[in-house]
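Table S2 (text version). Query chain:
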Amino acid sequence: MEIKVRVTPNSKTAHVMNAVIKIDETNFAVKVNAPATENRANKRLVEIMADYFHVRKSCVKIISGLNSRNKVLEVTK
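Corresponding structure-token output:
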């Protein structure tokens, strides 16, 4: 399944509230507490989405948008 994600890196509220906001079936907004440097936000995004969908981290791949806030992810089971 392909999903579109809008990422907010270095978010201070990611610790307090649920980091994943489901907009509709294929669109999500995710607040990540990691900075966007050295690929940290992307790694944390994969961890958060794997936990959200109850799959392994290896089942979540960033297809496009590695250097953008708007990303397309592929989630397999």
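Notes on Table S2: The mean pLDDT is 91. The two ends are 9 Å apart (CA to CA).
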